[in-house]
Amino acid sequence: MEILDIVKENQPITSEHIADRINLTRATLRPDLTILTMMGILEARPKVGYYYSGKSLISVMGSFIKNISVMDVKSIPVVVSEDTTVYDAIVTMFLEDTGNIYVQNKGYLSGVVSRKDFIKITLGNHDIKTLPVAMIMTRMPNIVYCEPGESIFDAAVKIIDHQVDSLPVVEKVNDNDGSEKLKVIGKISKTTITKMMVKIGND
Ligand code: ADP
């Protein structure tokens, strides 16, 4: 930030002059200048010096998250079949330590069940040891999902807009009968996105 302020006020300015102003050697400053140039925040013109490109740090961060694919950060989804009982699905939820379970019919995505769906059903007078999960799940076509070509930013927007905890990452395939089906290949959740933030911070 200090380098940016100096460049904004004195551009074009050489690395030597920037270094003088913050009492560092040119060599010490070089990695910072390289990063700022690589990020497109500063422009370097040989024999002239550094200019401010006009791009803010926040806009650079914006394009950064829009360039991270859901495929780079997706986690492993927990999947059950439609005939799984609500009881077994709840046990799976605890064993797998997850909040959302995806439901499949003949290998294709047909529904999503969450903690709230389970709580709701246990409030009623149901036999959860025989009731199939298909009876309580949110089903297609109401499932919000993302595809491999989308960015983590697109996924985060859908999670916020639809107020859900996770999105299945799906591949669209054509079934034998010609209809379009969704194959679950991953999961993006609030945890996945938080882990990504921590990794970027640590890196
Ligand atoms: P929780 O139950 O822990 O609040 P969610 O906010 O994800 O978890 O779920 C709230 C509701 O949204 C549930 O009824 C669930 O079935 C549904 N749901 C969860 N994920 C999706 C999704 N990707 N698309 C559509 N509905 C979803």
Spans of 5+ residues with little confidence (pLDDT < 50)? Answer: none
The distinct bound ligands, ions and cofactors come out as: adenosine-5'-diphosphate
Strand content: 15-25%
Separation, N- and C-terminal Cα atoms:
20 Å
CATH class descriptor of the largest domain: Alpha Beta
**Tally of individual helices:** 9
What pattern of helices and strands is seen along the backbone? HHHEEHHEHEEHEHEEH
Strand order of the largest sheet: 3-4-5-6
Shape: elongated
Keywords: CBS domain, Repeat
Pfam family, one: CBS
Domain CBS: 71-128, 137-203
Protein name: CBS domain-containing protein
Can you summarize this structure?
InterPro entries: CBS_dom, CBS_dom_sf, CBS_domain-containing, HTH_11, UCP026546_HTH-CBS, WH-like_DNA-bd_sf, WH_DNA-bd_sf. This protein is an alpha+beta fold and 203 residues long.
Blueprint of the fold:
Blueprint lengths: L1 H9 L4 H7 L4 H13 L3 E4 L3 E4 L4 H10 L3 H4 L5 E3 L4 H10 L4 E6 L2 E7 H9 L14 E2 L12 H11 L3 E9 L5 E10 H13 L1
Parallel strand pairs: 3-4
Antiparallel strand pairs: 1-2, 4-5, 5-6, 7-8
Helix pairs in contact: 2-3
